[in-house]
Amino acid sequence: MGLHLSSWHLFVHINYSYLILVCYFISDQAFYSSSNCESSSNEYIIKTAGCNITNISDEHEITEAMSGPPERDTCDQEKQLLDSNATHIWILKDMFSIFNISDETLLSCCYRFFLAKNSIENILYSTCKKFVTIIKSQHEFVRVDCSYNDSVIYSDYFVFLIDEARPRTRTAKHQSAYNVIVLGVDSVSRLNFERTMPKTAKFLTDRGAIQLKGYNKVGYNTFPNLFPLLTGRSLNSCKIEECSLLWQLYKSAGYYTALGSDSPLGTLGPYEYRWPTIPTDYYLQPFMSELKRVFPPTDYVYNRRCLKAKAIYQISLNFTKGLLQNLKQRNKLFGFFWEESVSHDILKNPQIIDEGYFNFFTDLENSKILDDTILIVLSDHGMRWGVFSQTEQGSLEGNLPLFSILVPASFRKRFKDAYTNLLVNSERLTTPYDAYWTMVDLIHPKRLNSHNLRLKEINSESDYHYHSLFLPVSAYRTCLSIGIEKAWCACDITTEPSPTLTEIKAANVILKSINKMLADFPKCQTLTLRTIFGHTKMRSVLIRDRIYNSYKVVFKATPGGGVFQGTVVRQPSEWFAFGPITRLNRDSEDTSCVERDLIKLYCVCH
């Protein structure tokens, strides 16, 4: 059945927190169920013909995970000898006593700018330019080392917005285009975003942002989820350095482009270091990669939130805001920025960045930038480790990352059908592939008028095909139909008590599969079952024309204390592991006897 809206449809929005009722008349055929309606209530996060996601909402598990005092930013407690604004760097004389500076004639600071030549593997520094009070910056990335009595006592890094090296004649080919800004917050589910960043969530909700409640991850960690988001392709379909990425499409359409992360790892981790050229017009990563010089080798990845008195995530936000303000009268910007320095490791940590993101969005609104900007706030997955991830609630949230999109009032007015489809799709099963095609559509706003949308619907390949969220997504979508592996699928989960023998059998089937992998690595110990945390019965699966029951089980193994989650399928006399086996806590401290990352997840060395 084609997804072709006839001349009218009805979208009734009744108390969005509790009930959404959506009714359609499509080509004179019922789109969903005999009543032509679908509903979402407190019992389900989404409920469609193809996917029901149960609203577990275990308040006890949530309260336990969020217990203790709220997290706070402590960067302002760092000692600071230098400060800066948009154009200058200066020495803070009132801090001399803290740095034991008694004779200021013995103090001097060395200004050096740096840049990446072709790639961030090749950072070049300028010669030193000394100053003793204040200096004007004429460069984008700057390092300053201050010496007292010929010994370096302080080093700091600074970012400035310098445009002289950028093309100034680029113009978006579509004058009606919008800025498109994507802000990623690592390891945050939709529900944990609302718990830990309530001010930011309320800001977006109050202005009509749409959350995709059925946005389902398609891989274990960051890269398998960002790859389809940025390329529209699966992880192994092309090499990252050979794929066409979103910012390349936007640049070809005349946009300025920007990319940045608040971690030396970069948005795409080690893959980012493979690029032979700088990927975007504005690129923050040369600056972030240099922070490896400041932090201890084992400490610079996720656990450092501060660069002296500056919150590192705030450096990225200020960079983004500066670009938008600077380009406001000139051209449109596509920017993709990723935060992981705070949110990556601990469930409660996004509390730290709530105020900063709220202020960032407020500044964009006050400067009228949001009037001309489509804002997407998203994540790659929920929290993947820790006690909460081992609970049923945490396991479900791990598969349902945040995706929120805020479009200007002018967009809603100009593209009413596209906006209505987006609202409807907030209650459907969606993936990063759909998000990719949505952002492709935003390059060419004319594609979103009602006439062109109808043509695209008519030419849609199938009810289940990945496509833009500005088109209706089929209510008959299932994880199987769009290629979401069972381990990541949030659909059709129901909890029911089971005999202990069933749980033990299921866990041992998973352990047998793990130990089979470890058999080729004799320095790794054999794992045995220690504790079972529980299991979830899932929808039956069809394999080679046979129907099997399937179960997702979570358990702890010994030695090493690894907590694992896997899926088993069974008939009365046949059990076997199905799909990937994931680890929900940190790897063992002793995995030095193996080099393969996959085996490190399971190995405990002798």
Word description of this protein:
The protein is of the alpha+beta class. Among the domains are: 10-65, no CATH class; 75-159; 500-600. 24% of the residues lie in helices and 25% in strands. The chain is globular.
Give a short overview.
This protein has 15 helices and 29 strands.
Characteristic terms for this protein:
alpha+beta; 24% helix; 15 helices; five-stranded antiparallel sheet; 606 residues; disordered N terminus; seven-stranded mixed sheet; single chain
Q: What class would the helix/strand composition place it in? A: alpha+beta
Please give the number of β-strands. 29
Q: Report the biggest beta sheet as strand number plus sense, adding barrel if it closes.
A: 7 strands, mixed
Any low-confidence stretches, pLDDT <50, length ≥5? Answer: 1-40, 494-499
Shape: globular
Tell me the β content. 15-25%
First-residue to last-residue Cα separation: 58 Å
Strand order of the largest sheet: 15-23-22-14-21-17-18
Radius of gyration: 26 Å
The residue-averaged pLDDT reads: 83
